[in-house]
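Lab manual, section 2.4: Encoding a predicted structure.

Procedure: take the sequence of the chain (652 residues), apply the prediction step described in section 2.3, and record the output as structure tokens. A sample record is shown.
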Amino acid sequence: MKASHHRGMARTSLLVLGLAVLLAAIGLTLSLRKTPSPATPRTESGAGAPRPEHIVVVTIDTLRADRVGAYGYRSGRTPVLDGLARGGVRFERAYAPTPITLPSHASLLTGLYPPGHGSRHNGMRVEAGVSTLAELLKAAGFVTGAFVAAFPLDRRFGLDQGFDTYSDTMPRGPDGRLRNERAGRAVVDEAMAWLGQQGTRRVFLWVHLFEPHAPYEGDDHAAVGARAQPVAERYDAEVARADVEVGRLIEALGPRRPSTTVVVASDHGEAFGEHGEAGHSVFVYDTTLRVPLVLSGAGVSRAGHVVAGEVSLLDVLPTVTDLLGLPTPDVDGRSFSAALRGEPVPRRELYAESFAPLLDFGWSALRSIRRDGVKYVAAPKPELYDLSADPAEVRNIVTVRSDQARDLQARADAYSSPELPASSAQQQTTPEAQRRLQALGYVGAGRVASQAGSRPDPKDLRELAARIAQVTSGELSGDALRAALESIVRDDPANGQAHLRLGFVLVEAGQCPSAERHFRAAMTTGIPSADPSIGLAGCLFARGDLAEAAEASRVLDGADAIEPGNPVVKANQGVVAMAQGRNDSAIASLESAVAGAPDFLEARFNLARAYARAGRRDDAVREARELLSRLPPASPQRAEVERLLGVLTRAS
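Recorded output:
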């Protein structure tokens, strides 16, 4: 599993175990619905293809189509996906409706564009009343299970509708906080165990793998930013790990496999500098909209067939219901089941959007229309590309074909305004959810700063966006990370996340006085996290002055109000109270920290010290021994704990 400290900033202590200060830093309308023809009941889903008994959908987060062997990648490390394509149908031109995890998955599971299901960005819940594929299949008698690998798909955002089992619990770190992702192997292990419990029941299973989402680990699981492998190779290594897990899942189907339709797709792609973008979510170029899509198994009668026509992730729901002979609801997607029998896909118009520029940075949202071989990007400075002659979207011909551009602008406006409707704009995520999304590199600034009609075009700020993406991806470290953060806060002084991250970089460099300014700046931007307060309190307390300790205590009280019960806040409150001679308060805070995070070893060490200062030697000895039992044998902190235990036992 990827180390948690790769997400933005590491939660680290300013001082090592046994010293006074404990600190932790953060990781960082209306839908145009088309009514398909009603499905005609059949005993088969196509000529020679039996109707499926089971449906398995696998989504591989952030997987580019052109990094899969079946799509022509000569260095591809995807034997399982390639085998599924050889035995099934591969869609050469499949597209996501948005380059963002939650709304893209919501479209796949509802058949609706984002304006139709209401989730326009990570953290924005799918609207109540929208039907999901799981609900449709559950009503048809299927047992339904979902197993997801990352927080953006947490049940609180509405994708659990219709699932009998929705496994989204992430592991906890030593500080007691839930991590924001888990390894694909753990996800597949759970899914396999669930499959084994279903007996002969009809199964609908969705499995989500977070590999190869940034930060990318190498073949040896080297730390992010390690120079042992280039970024592209580390990305490919993560793709390979996802491919292995797909293979394990397919094998676990056992005797169900011949009667199972397997759908494998990605939610969006990933940019490695194309159009000046790093990562995904800001722009709507095909670098991040084109996705792999493969169907294999029951319902597929043309093994090895490649579909050249354009399809969307929205089409998965109506295709599945069509294959099963179920009524298809009023959705934006269209069934491509005929393509599984070798028939061509009709030409159509496809819409896509990204509201990340608006919601993260206060820039203009981007919308696109793909039709008749061209693609239009609705932006303050519009773009038009002839995809047949310019598939890389590098030659903007909007001034050459102005009439066509005006027509496509009207089509984009018919799907969605560039502004969010009031119901969406007012939707609020909790501070905890925003903090966890930010730690994964999403919701970069969490603000809509400029006024409608005057928002900047993201193209004009792509260099700034790329710097922010590099920071949040975890690909920068050391001097390069510091330089990037300093340039971001200079060019975007209201970016609280950049101020926060820079503050902790300066702390690690031993420059607490300089860090304080950035922690205070982060606090003024309203970041929904206790971390700026934790950082500021640590720097204040490190001065060793009682007056500064008192201010540190007040700052930590504010942090506790933002994140009640946060073990890191409680541990720091305990350390400050102990220094002020308030042993009872120190013990209460440290006990709370340990109760919330039993493996928070620094908190447990200081709890033993607080017990000793209060004359509670038996309690102190108990905590010291418990700490020794939890420390690894080779831990350098063992000697210090043993010294403390020796003093306590001699005194008793």
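Check your result against the sample. The chain has two domains: 4-26+433-616, 56-414.
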